[in-house]
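Follow-up to my post from last week.
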Amino acid sequence: MQFGIFTVSDITQNPTTGRTPTEHERITDVLTIAQHAEEVGLDVFALGEHHNPPFFSSSPTTTLAYIAAKTSTLQLSTATTLITTNDPVKIAEDFAMLQHVAGGRVDLMMGRGNTGPVYPWFGKDIRQGINLALENYALLHRLWREDFVDWEGQFRTPLQGFQSTPRPLDDVPPFVWHGSIRSPEIAEQAAYYGDGFFANHIFWPASHTQRMVALYRQRFEHYEHGTAEQAIVGLGGQVFMRKNSQDAVREFRPYFDNAPVYGHGPSLEEFTSQTPLTVGSPQEVIDKTLGFRDYVGDYQRQLFLMDHAGLPLKTVLEQLDLLGSEVVPVLRREFAKDRPAMVPDAPTHASLVEARNAAAAASSADSAPKGAAFGAAAVKGA
Amino acid sequence: MTTRTLAVVSAGLSQPSSTRMLADKLADQTVARLKSEGIDTTVETFELRDVATDIMNHMLTGFPSPRLEAVIEAVTGADGLIAVTPIFTTSYSGLFKSFFDVIDSAALAEMPVLIGATAGTPRHSLALDYALRPMFTYLHAVVAPTGVFAATSDWGDAADSVKTLPARIDRAAGELAALMAASDRSTTVRDPFALDRPFGHLIGGLAGE
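User reply:
Got it. Predicted complex:
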């Protein structure tokens, strides 16, 4: 199972000091945070995409390419890549390029975004959000798998004999997750392609996530990619920890109370009881996170949001230290217990290359020698 | 015997409130009219004041608390709805509107609705037809032709003595009862994850479905 962090790249005032970091400070802080994720033993770093302040991350592959050069094992992903307003041709090219420079340590998560004006800024209609996500991904999927693509759709200039470049590393496209909070169409899309489904589980009650994941698993089996238990599921989560639970609550409360997403609404206590947010000791984080498996089944990837709401860099790095030293080692051990052997790990470039080669070997074994020596051809020859 | 469920939503703020009194009278008369048609009615009444904080939290966070979710489920799953608000500053109260703002915009489609309102003077009565009725029309609810407005004077000796409040209530209740008798909303299963079209159609036939 993979553990990691994701960031939405918000530039938020620290409510305890009144200071807002500059864009440059926040960008360099996130680069530091990503590298520290590898240092503390995490597997994945995922970066969001936005095209308006107070966010900085309009150019995720540039950022991820730098992090790739500074790390050696960290899997680089997105949270999310806007499949609605980006040109699928550019996504195909940017992420194939990133695969090459990162030595294959790349996957990505498709999302529709939550900022209405992004659609008109890129010449799109938000009412077509789902249709854009479906058509654009259908094209992207082909661009990575077919050398020359003829294409005509509703939303993009037609293509005749187009080849996106560079080709994916080893001719194996990056693994794709589809993220959605509430659209069954996206769970269906992930299931149809046999891709991963990521439930951004933060800010929402567990009962809702449970239903969306159950739908995805059922449809994954329907499309014959494996059993429902073998579907590839990722979850978000959000935690703030101190050794002593009361210290965590006291320190995090001003950030919670003023956070852009839920600030000035429910109390910290109401929110932690209704959503996966955990504020407390490392043991409390372990207990709550292990509980996720009870309602989504054995899953493949757990990402935590650690750096938003104006938390200073020093605090975030301390949080990563706790996550890496006290939480994730226990989660790895406990999640491995009673995990059925048939439940796969999250696909990586290496595992996808291996699967592709195994399938190729199986199909060539099917055709040539076996047919002549033992099959119908041998009988006919005798 | 046939049964129906009736949800009653009151946005009155005081205790007791004339808005709640009007809501109860409309509900009682609707139950009586359904009874005369041989239909038993289960009534569930909700004071929005009880979930006022939950409504605003939902607006801020995007999801309902368990307590508010139970109210929304009961209201959207009923066979009929009586919705009554005080008129504040020439329109429905902010609390009343906020409740309907956080409900899914498709959840009240085809819902039989009886609208009611209260205010200090009869001069606000038109708010029923320029504020409440268009809101429910937008939500594709089926609004009974008669809405019932009760001014403070309607509860005392300055009331309209020709078209009396009880007569208006009875007329409106009869209209709602007829709509509810024909409604089977509470017995239909609504799947929040159902797709509008098969997935193959969604992606232009690529899925082969």
